[in-house]
Protein backbone atom coordinates (compact mmCIF):
# COMPACT_ATOMS: atom_id res chain seq x y z
CA UNK A 1 0.00 0.00 0.00
CA UNK A 2 1.27 3.49 -0.85
CA UNK A 3 2.37 5.64 2.09
CA UNK A 4 -0.54 7.45 3.72
CA UNK A 5 0.26 11.06 4.54
CA UNK A 6 -1.92 13.38 6.61
CA UNK A 7 -1.79 17.03 5.45
CA UNK A 8 -2.81 19.54 8.11
CA UNK A 9 -3.31 23.17 7.03
CA UNK A 10 -6.12 25.63 7.67
CA UNK A 11 -5.87 27.03 4.11
CA UNK A 12 -7.78 24.98 1.55
CA UNK A 13 -5.50 26.04 -1.33
CA UNK A 14 -2.38 24.87 0.52
CA UNK A 15 -3.98 21.50 1.25
CA UNK A 16 -5.02 21.08 -2.39
CA UNK A 17 -1.57 21.95 -3.76
CA UNK A 18 0.21 19.60 -1.34
CA UNK A 19 -2.28 16.83 -1.97
CA UNK A 20 -1.71 17.14 -5.72
CA UNK A 21 2.08 16.92 -5.31
CA UNK A 22 1.81 13.85 -3.09
CA UNK A 23 -0.66 12.10 -5.36
CA UNK A 24 1.65 12.77 -8.32
CA UNK A 25 4.35 10.95 -6.33
CA UNK A 26 1.91 8.03 -5.78
CA UNK A 27 1.18 8.71 -2.10
CA UNK A 28 -2.27 8.47 -0.56
CA UNK A 29 -3.09 11.85 1.02
CA UNK A 30 -5.72 12.62 3.63
CA UNK A 31 -6.35 16.15 4.85
CA UNK A 32 -7.41 18.06 7.95
CA UNK A 33 -8.22 21.76 8.19
CA UNK A 34 -7.23 22.22 11.83
CA UNK A 35 -5.34 20.80 14.78
CA UNK A 36 -8.19 19.05 16.57
CA UNK A 37 -9.40 17.36 13.39
CA UNK A 38 -5.81 16.29 12.71
CA UNK A 39 -5.47 14.60 16.11
CA UNK A 40 -8.69 12.66 15.57
CA UNK A 41 -7.67 11.60 12.07
CA UNK A 42 -4.18 10.60 13.23
CA UNK A 43 -5.65 8.40 15.95
CA UNK A 44 -8.23 6.77 13.72
CA UNK A 45 -6.31 6.50 10.43
CA UNK A 46 -2.76 6.04 11.78
CA UNK A 47 -1.03 7.68 8.81
CA UNK A 48 2.59 6.92 7.99
CA UNK A 49 3.59 10.59 8.16
CA UNK A 50 2.09 13.99 9.05
CA UNK A 51 2.74 17.27 7.19
CA UNK A 52 1.75 19.94 9.71
CA UNK A 53 1.32 23.68 9.36
CA UNK A 54 2.75 25.72 12.23
CA UNK A 55 0.07 28.42 12.44
CA UNK A 56 -3.60 27.40 12.63
CA UNK A 57 -6.46 29.19 14.38
CA UNK A 58 -7.89 26.42 16.56
CA UNK A 59 -4.63 24.76 17.69
CA UNK A 60 -1.14 25.58 16.52
CA UNK A 61 1.26 23.06 15.05
CA UNK A 62 3.44 22.89 18.18
CA UNK A 63 0.49 21.87 20.33
CA UNK A 64 -0.62 19.29 17.76
CA UNK A 65 2.88 17.82 17.56
CA UNK A 66 3.17 17.62 21.35
CA UNK A 67 -0.25 15.93 21.56
CA UNK A 68 0.79 13.40 18.90
CA UNK A 69 3.96 12.59 20.82
CA UNK A 70 2.08 12.25 24.11
CA UNK A 71 -0.37 9.69 22.73
CA UNK A 72 1.01 6.09 22.61
CA UNK A 73 -1.07 5.45 19.48
CA UNK A 74 0.49 8.31 17.49
CA UNK A 75 3.78 9.08 19.20
CA UNK A 76 5.97 7.34 16.59
CA UNK A 77 4.36 8.87 13.48
CA UNK A 78 6.96 11.09 11.74
CA UNK A 79 6.00 14.76 11.66
CA UNK A 80 7.29 17.50 9.35
CA UNK A 81 6.33 20.98 10.54
CA UNK A 82 6.36 23.86 8.07
CA UNK A 83 5.85 27.60 8.32
CA UNK A 84 6.33 30.79 6.33
CA UNK A 85 8.25 32.09 9.34
CA UNK A 86 11.58 30.28 9.56
CA UNK A 87 13.36 32.14 12.34
CA UNK A 88 15.36 30.52 15.14
CA UNK A 89 12.41 30.34 17.55
CA UNK A 90 10.15 28.56 15.06
CA UNK A 91 12.78 26.01 14.00
CA UNK A 92 13.85 25.27 17.55
CA UNK A 93 10.28 25.12 18.84
CA UNK A 94 9.29 22.61 16.18
CA UNK A 95 12.20 20.25 16.87
CA UNK A 96 11.80 20.57 20.63
CA UNK A 97 8.11 19.69 20.32
CA UNK A 98 9.07 16.40 18.66
CA UNK A 99 8.92 17.19 14.95
CA UNK A 100 11.28 15.16 12.79
CA UNK A 101 12.00 18.18 10.62
CA UNK A 102 11.06 21.80 10.09
CA UNK A 103 10.77 23.23 6.59
CA UNK A 104 10.24 26.82 5.51
CA UNK A 105 7.54 27.91 3.08
CA UNK A 106 7.48 28.00 0.16
CA UNK A 107 8.28 24.30 0.30
CA UNK A 108 11.04 23.01 -1.97
CA UNK A 109 9.24 20.10 -3.66
CA UNK A 110 12.34 17.99 -4.39
CA UNK A 111 13.66 18.35 -0.83
CA UNK A 112 10.22 17.72 0.71
CA UNK A 113 9.78 14.49 -1.25
CA UNK A 114 13.32 13.40 -0.38
CA UNK A 115 12.60 13.98 3.29
CA UNK A 116 9.31 12.09 3.07
CA UNK A 117 11.03 9.13 1.40
CA UNK A 118 13.75 9.12 4.06
CA UNK A 119 11.28 9.13 6.95
CA UNK A 120 9.02 6.52 5.35
CA UNK A 121 12.00 4.17 4.95
CA UNK A 122 12.54 4.44 8.70
CA UNK A 123 8.84 3.76 9.32
CA UNK A 124 8.91 0.67 7.10
CA UNK A 125 11.98 -0.69 8.91
CA UNK A 126 10.44 -0.05 12.33
CA UNK A 127 7.14 -1.67 11.36
CA UNK A 128 8.91 -4.83 10.22
CA UNK A 129 9.98 -5.32 13.83
CA UNK A 130 6.53 -4.46 15.16
CA UNK A 131 4.88 -7.09 12.99
CA UNK A 132 7.40 -9.78 13.93
CA UNK A 133 5.73 -12.73 15.71
CA UNK A 134 8.58 -12.90 18.24
CA UNK A 135 7.65 -10.29 20.83
CA UNK A 136 11.20 -10.19 22.19
CA UNK A 137 12.26 -8.55 18.93
CA UNK A 138 9.80 -5.73 19.62
CA UNK A 139 11.12 -4.99 23.10
CA UNK A 140 13.34 -2.10 22.08
CA UNK A 141 10.36 -0.30 20.56
CA UNK A 142 8.46 -0.14 23.83
CA UNK A 143 10.56 2.59 25.44
CA UNK A 144 10.32 6.26 24.51
CA UNK A 145 13.40 7.69 22.83
CA UNK A 146 13.87 10.01 25.80
CA UNK A 147 15.12 7.11 27.91
CA UNK A 148 18.32 7.00 25.87
CA UNK A 149 21.28 8.90 27.31
CA UNK A 150 23.63 9.25 24.36
CA UNK A 151 27.35 9.96 24.59
CA UNK A 152 28.02 9.26 20.95
CA UNK A 153 31.07 8.82 18.81
CA UNK A 154 30.96 11.41 16.01
CA UNK A 155 33.41 11.30 13.11
CA UNK A 156 34.02 14.47 11.12
CA UNK A 157 34.82 13.72 7.50
CA UNK A 158 36.83 16.49 5.86
CA UNK A 159 38.34 16.99 2.44
CA UNK A 160 41.76 17.88 3.83
CA UNK A 161 43.23 17.05 7.27
CA UNK A 162 44.07 20.73 7.86
CA UNK A 163 40.37 21.70 7.92
CA UNK A 164 39.54 19.43 10.86
CA UNK A 165 40.45 21.93 13.58
CA UNK A 166 37.79 24.37 12.39
CA UNK A 167 35.03 21.78 12.26
CA UNK A 168 36.10 20.22 15.55
CA UNK A 169 35.74 23.55 17.28
CA UNK A 170 32.26 23.99 15.78
CA UNK A 171 30.94 20.51 16.65
CA UNK A 172 32.56 20.49 20.11
CA UNK A 173 30.62 23.62 20.97
CA UNK A 174 27.39 21.95 19.81
CA UNK A 175 27.90 18.64 21.67
CA UNK A 176 30.73 18.91 24.24
CA UNK A 177 30.08 15.44 25.70
CA UNK A 178 30.49 13.65 22.37
CA UNK A 179 33.65 11.79 21.42
CA UNK A 180 34.99 13.47 18.28
CA UNK A 181 37.37 11.94 15.78
CA UNK A 182 38.52 13.14 12.36
CA UNK A 183 39.02 11.33 9.10
CA UNK A 184 39.27 11.98 5.42
CA UNK A 185 36.79 10.20 3.16
CA UNK A 186 39.35 7.53 2.10
CA UNK A 187 40.10 6.85 5.80
CA UNK A 188 36.40 6.30 6.49
CA UNK A 189 35.99 3.95 3.53
CA UNK A 190 38.94 1.86 4.72
CA UNK A 191 37.45 1.21 8.19
CA UNK A 192 36.98 -2.51 8.75
CA UNK A 193 36.94 -2.93 12.55
CA UNK A 194 33.53 -2.38 14.11
CA UNK A 195 35.09 -0.80 17.19
CA UNK A 196 36.51 2.01 15.03
CA UNK A 197 33.22 2.88 13.32
CA UNK A 198 31.45 5.94 14.77
CA UNK A 199 27.77 6.24 15.56
CA UNK A 200 27.53 9.13 13.13
CA UNK A 201 29.57 10.46 10.21
CA UNK A 202 29.28 14.22 9.69
CA UNK A 203 30.34 15.19 6.18
CA UNK A 204 31.74 18.69 5.90
CA UNK A 205 31.23 20.78 2.75
CA UNK A 206 34.87 20.34 1.73
CA UNK A 207 34.54 16.54 2.08
CA UNK A 208 31.60 16.63 -0.32
CA UNK A 209 33.54 18.92 -2.65
CA UNK A 210 36.39 16.42 -2.82
CA UNK A 211 34.41 13.15 -2.81
CA UNK A 212 30.89 13.96 -4.02
CA UNK A 213 27.59 12.62 -2.74
CA UNK A 214 28.45 9.07 -3.80
CA UNK A 215 30.45 8.73 -0.57
CA UNK A 216 27.10 8.30 1.22
CA UNK A 217 26.26 5.28 -0.93
CA UNK A 218 29.79 3.92 -0.42
CA UNK A 219 29.51 4.16 3.38
CA UNK A 220 26.06 2.55 3.25
CA UNK A 221 27.37 -0.36 1.15
CA UNK A 222 30.38 -1.29 3.33
CA UNK A 223 29.86 -4.03 5.92
CA UNK A 224 31.67 -2.12 8.66
CA UNK A 225 29.96 1.26 8.16
CA UNK A 226 26.50 0.39 6.81
CA UNK A 227 24.80 0.81 10.20
CA UNK A 228 26.45 4.15 11.01
CA UNK A 229 24.25 7.21 10.55
CA UNK A 230 25.27 9.99 8.16
CA UNK A 231 24.59 13.72 8.28
CA UNK A 232 26.01 16.34 5.95
CA UNK A 233 26.54 20.06 6.21
CA UNK A 234 25.35 22.15 3.26
CA UNK A 235 24.75 25.82 2.45
CA UNK A 236 21.04 26.78 2.41
CA UNK A 237 21.08 27.27 -1.37
CA UNK A 238 22.06 23.64 -2.03
CA UNK A 239 18.67 21.96 -1.46
CA UNK A 240 19.00 19.80 -4.58
CA UNK A 241 22.06 18.02 -3.16
CA UNK A 242 20.27 17.77 0.17
CA UNK A 243 17.37 15.91 -1.45
CA UNK A 244 19.77 13.55 -3.26
CA UNK A 245 21.69 12.93 -0.03
CA UNK A 246 18.51 11.90 1.78
CA UNK A 247 17.68 9.48 -1.03
CA UNK A 248 21.18 8.00 -0.84
CA UNK A 249 20.75 7.26 2.86
CA UNK A 250 21.72 10.39 4.82
CA UNK A 251 19.75 10.76 8.06
CA UNK A 252 19.61 14.57 8.03
CA UNK A 253 20.97 17.67 6.36
CA UNK A 254 22.49 20.39 8.57
CA UNK A 255 22.21 23.83 7.04
CA UNK A 256 24.88 26.53 7.33
CA UNK A 257 25.33 28.58 9.41
CA UNK A 258 24.96 25.90 12.10
CA UNK A 259 22.68 27.00 14.93
CA UNK A 260 23.99 25.30 18.08
CA UNK A 261 20.66 24.49 19.72
CA UNK A 262 18.95 23.38 16.51
CA UNK A 263 21.90 21.26 15.37
CA UNK A 264 22.12 19.59 18.80
CA UNK A 265 18.43 18.64 18.63
CA UNK A 266 18.82 17.28 15.12
CA UNK A 267 21.89 15.23 16.04
CA UNK A 268 20.20 13.88 19.18
CA UNK A 269 17.27 12.65 17.09
CA UNK A 270 19.63 10.91 14.68
CA UNK A 271 21.57 9.26 17.53
CA UNK A 272 18.37 8.17 19.30
CA UNK A 273 17.23 6.49 16.08
CA UNK A 274 20.64 4.82 15.72
CA UNK A 275 20.57 3.51 19.29
CA UNK A 276 17.09 2.10 18.81
CA UNK A 277 18.16 0.34 15.60
CA UNK A 278 21.25 -1.03 17.37
CA UNK A 279 19.10 -2.32 20.24
CA UNK A 280 16.84 -4.10 17.77
CA UNK A 281 19.80 -5.75 16.05
CA UNK A 282 21.26 -6.86 19.39
CA UNK A 283 17.91 -8.35 20.37
CA UNK A 284 17.76 -10.21 17.07
CA UNK A 285 21.28 -11.56 17.60
CA UNK A 286 20.36 -12.72 21.10
CA UNK A 287 17.22 -14.43 19.81
CA UNK A 288 19.19 -16.15 17.05
CA UNK A 289 21.70 -17.20 19.67
CA UNK A 290 18.96 -18.71 21.83
CA UNK A 291 17.78 -20.66 18.80
CA UNK A 292 21.28 -21.99 18.07
CA UNK A 293 22.91 -22.49 21.48
CA UNK A 294 22.25 -24.46 24.60
CA UNK A 295 21.65 -21.81 27.30
CA UNK A 296 23.26 -23.89 30.06
CA UNK A 297 26.59 -24.88 28.50
CA UNK A 298 26.91 -22.27 25.75
CA UNK A 299 27.54 -25.06 23.23
CA UNK A 300 25.52 -25.43 20.03
CA UNK A 301 22.26 -27.24 20.59
CA UNK A 302 21.44 -30.47 18.80
CA UNK A 303 19.39 -29.03 15.93
CA UNK A 304 21.89 -26.31 15.09
CA UNK A 305 24.83 -28.71 15.31
CA UNK A 306 23.19 -31.12 12.87
CA UNK A 307 22.61 -28.24 10.43
CA UNK A 308 26.26 -27.24 10.82
CA UNK A 309 27.23 -30.85 10.25
CA UNK A 310 25.33 -30.82 6.97
CA UNK A 311 27.30 -27.75 5.84
CA UNK A 312 30.63 -29.14 7.03
CA UNK A 313 30.32 -32.25 4.87
CA UNK A 314 31.78 -31.60 1.43
CA UNK A 315 32.23 -33.92 -1.56
CA UNK A 316 36.00 -33.96 -1.03
CA UNK A 317 35.75 -35.02 2.64
CA UNK A 318 37.64 -38.31 2.71
CA UNK A 319 36.78 -39.18 6.33
CA UNK A 320 34.49 -37.90 9.04
CA UNK A 321 34.33 -38.89 12.72
CA UNK A 322 31.42 -38.68 15.15
CA UNK A 323 32.01 -39.03 18.89
CA UNK A 324 29.04 -39.49 21.23
CA UNK A 325 30.06 -38.64 24.81
CA UNK A 326 27.89 -39.56 27.81
CA UNK A 327 28.63 -38.78 31.46
CA UNK A 328 28.54 -41.89 33.63
CA UNK A 329 26.08 -42.20 36.54
CA UNK A 330 24.96 -38.63 36.02
CA UNK A 331 21.48 -39.29 37.41
CA UNK A 332 23.05 -40.13 40.77
CA UNK A 333 24.68 -36.68 40.89
CA UNK A 334 21.31 -35.00 40.36
CA UNK A 335 19.57 -37.28 42.86
CA UNK A 336 22.23 -36.96 45.57
CA UNK A 337 23.45 -33.38 45.16
CA UNK A 338 20.62 -31.65 43.33
CA UNK A 339 20.10 -30.36 39.81
CA UNK A 340 22.16 -27.20 40.46
CA UNK A 341 25.18 -29.42 41.07
CA UNK A 342 24.39 -31.36 37.89
CA UNK A 343 24.13 -28.15 35.89
CA UNK A 344 27.47 -26.99 37.31
CA UNK A 345 29.11 -30.25 36.21
CA UNK A 346 27.68 -29.98 32.69
CA UNK A 347 29.05 -26.43 32.34
CA UNK A 348 32.52 -27.46 33.53
CA UNK A 349 32.58 -30.55 31.30
CA UNK A 350 31.75 -28.39 28.29
CA UNK A 351 34.60 -26.01 29.11
CA UNK A 352 37.09 -28.86 29.55
CA UNK A 353 36.18 -30.46 26.23
CA UNK A 354 36.43 -27.18 24.32
CA UNK A 355 40.14 -26.98 25.20
CA UNK A 356 40.98 -29.89 22.88
CA UNK A 357 39.12 -28.93 19.72
CA UNK A 358 40.08 -27.61 16.32
CA UNK A 359 38.27 -24.67 14.76
CA UNK A 360 36.55 -26.99 12.28
CA UNK A 361 35.23 -29.37 14.98
CA UNK A 362 31.57 -29.15 15.98
CA UNK A 363 30.72 -29.79 19.63
CA UNK A 364 27.14 -29.69 20.89
CA UNK A 365 25.01 -30.69 23.81
CA UNK A 366 23.13 -33.58 22.26
CA UNK A 367 20.64 -34.01 25.08
CA UNK A 368 20.68 -34.39 28.87
CA UNK A 369 24.21 -35.39 29.83
CA UNK A 370 25.15 -36.39 26.26
CA UNK A 371 27.47 -34.45 23.96
CA UNK A 372 28.20 -34.92 20.26
CA UNK A 373 31.55 -34.07 18.68
CA UNK A 374 31.78 -34.04 14.87
CA UNK A 375 35.29 -33.94 13.40
CA UNK A 376 35.70 -33.35 9.64
CA UNK A 377 38.71 -34.89 7.84
CA UNK A 378 39.52 -37.18 10.77
CA UNK A 379 40.57 -40.81 10.44
CA UNK A 380 39.89 -43.58 12.97
CA UNK A 381 43.25 -43.38 14.73
CA UNK A 382 42.96 -39.63 15.28
CA UNK A 383 39.34 -39.94 16.41
CA UNK A 384 40.30 -42.55 19.02
CA UNK A 385 43.21 -40.42 20.20
CA UNK A 386 40.94 -37.39 20.65
CA UNK A 387 38.28 -39.51 22.39
CA UNK A 388 40.84 -40.86 24.89
CA UNK A 389 42.13 -37.35 25.53
CA UNK A 390 38.60 -36.07 26.20
CA UNK A 391 37.84 -39.03 28.47
CA UNK A 392 40.97 -38.29 30.48
CA UNK A 393 40.31 -34.57 30.61
CA UNK A 394 36.84 -35.20 32.03
CA UNK A 395 37.69 -38.00 34.42
CA UNK A 396 41.22 -37.39 35.70
CA UNK A 397 40.53 -34.29 37.80
CA UNK A 398 37.54 -33.87 40.14
CA UNK A 399 35.06 -31.04 39.63
CA UNK A 400 34.84 -28.31 42.27
CA UNK A 401 31.19 -27.30 42.74
CA UNK A 402 30.30 -23.61 43.02
CA UNK A 403 29.58 -22.31 46.52
CA UNK A 404 30.62 -25.63 48.01
CA UNK A 405 33.69 -27.46 49.29
CA UNK A 406 32.45 -30.58 47.53
CA UNK A 407 34.62 -32.04 44.76
CA UNK A 408 33.07 -34.70 42.54
CA UNK A 409 34.79 -37.11 40.20
CA UNK A 410 32.90 -37.71 36.97
CA UNK A 411 33.78 -40.08 34.15
CA UNK A 412 32.58 -40.37 30.57
CA UNK A 413 31.91 -43.16 28.12
CA UNK A 414 32.51 -42.41 24.43
CA UNK A 415 31.29 -44.12 21.26
CA UNK A 416 33.23 -43.43 18.04
CA UNK A 417 32.27 -44.03 14.43
CA UNK A 418 34.11 -42.93 11.29
CA UNK A 419 32.92 -42.56 7.71
CA UNK A 420 35.66 -43.69 5.29
CA UNK A 421 33.94 -44.10 1.96
CA UNK A 422 34.48 -40.92 -0.07
CA UNK A 423 32.74 -42.42 -3.06
CA UNK A 424 29.51 -42.35 -1.01
CA UNK A 425 28.60 -38.81 0.18
CA UNK A 426 27.90 -38.59 3.89
CA UNK A 427 24.34 -37.27 3.95
CA UNK A 428 20.79 -38.26 4.76
CA UNK A 429 20.54 -41.93 5.63
CA UNK A 430 24.31 -42.44 5.78
CA UNK A 431 24.63 -39.71 8.39
CA UNK A 432 21.89 -41.42 10.41
CA UNK A 433 23.80 -44.71 10.14
CA UNK A 434 26.94 -43.01 11.42
CA UNK A 435 25.05 -41.54 14.39
CA UNK A 436 23.53 -44.94 15.13
CA UNK A 437 27.01 -46.48 14.96
CA UNK A 438 28.31 -44.02 17.56
CA UNK A 439 25.26 -44.72 19.72
CA UNK A 440 25.77 -48.49 19.59
CA UNK A 441 29.46 -48.07 20.41
CA UNK A 442 28.52 -45.86 23.37
CA UNK A 443 26.12 -48.51 24.68
CA UNK A 444 28.88 -51.12 24.49
CA UNK A 445 31.17 -48.77 26.45
CA UNK A 446 28.47 -48.44 29.12
CA UNK A 447 27.82 -52.17 29.30
CA UNK A 448 31.51 -53.04 29.50
CA UNK A 449 32.22 -51.00 32.62
CA UNK A 450 31.95 -47.31 31.62
CA UNK A 451 34.77 -44.73 31.47
CA UNK A 452 35.84 -46.24 28.15
CA UNK A 453 36.20 -45.40 24.47
CA UNK A 454 34.62 -47.93 22.11
CA UNK A 455 34.70 -47.84 18.32
CA UNK A 456 31.75 -48.79 16.16
CA UNK A 457 32.23 -52.23 14.61
CA UNK A 458 31.53 -50.90 11.10
CA UNK A 459 33.76 -47.86 10.84
CA UNK A 460 33.25 -47.43 7.11
CA UNK A 461 29.83 -46.77 5.70
CA UNK A 462 29.70 -47.96 2.13
TrEMBL record:
Reaction(s) catalysed by this chain's protein: 2 GTP = 3',3'-c-di-GMP + 2 diphosphate
Keyword Cell wall biogenesis/degradation included in the entry's annotation: no
EC number(s) per entry: 2.7.7.65
InterPro entries the record matches: CheY-like_superfamily (IPR011006), Diguanylate_Cyclase (IPR050469), GGDEF_dom (IPR000160), Nucleotide_cyclase (IPR029787), Rev_trsase/Diguanyl_cyclase (IPR043128), Sig_transdc_resp-reg_receiver (IPR001789)
Domain GGDEF: 318-458
Cross-referenced CDD domains: GGDEF (cd01949)
Any GO BP annotation: phosphorelay signal transduction system
Residues with 4-aspartylphosphate modification: 53
Domain spans labelled Response regulatory: 4-120
GO molecular function, one term: diguanylate cyclase activity
UniProt keyword Phosphoprotein present: yes
Keywords: Phosphoprotein
Annotated protein name in UniProt: diguanylate cyclase
Gene: pleD
Amino acid sequence: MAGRILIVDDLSLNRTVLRGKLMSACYHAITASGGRAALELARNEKPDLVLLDYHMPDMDGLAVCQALRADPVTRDIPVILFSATADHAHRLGALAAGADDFLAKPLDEAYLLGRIRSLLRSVAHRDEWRRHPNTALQAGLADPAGLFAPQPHLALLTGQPNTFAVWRSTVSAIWPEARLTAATVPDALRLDAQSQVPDLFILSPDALEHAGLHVIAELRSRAATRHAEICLILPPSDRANGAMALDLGAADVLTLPLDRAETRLRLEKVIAHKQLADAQRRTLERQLGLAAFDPLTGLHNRNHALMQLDRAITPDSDSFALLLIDLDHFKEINDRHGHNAGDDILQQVARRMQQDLRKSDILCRYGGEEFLLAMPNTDLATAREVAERLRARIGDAPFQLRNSDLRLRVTASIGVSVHRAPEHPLAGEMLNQLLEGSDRALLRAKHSGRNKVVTARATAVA
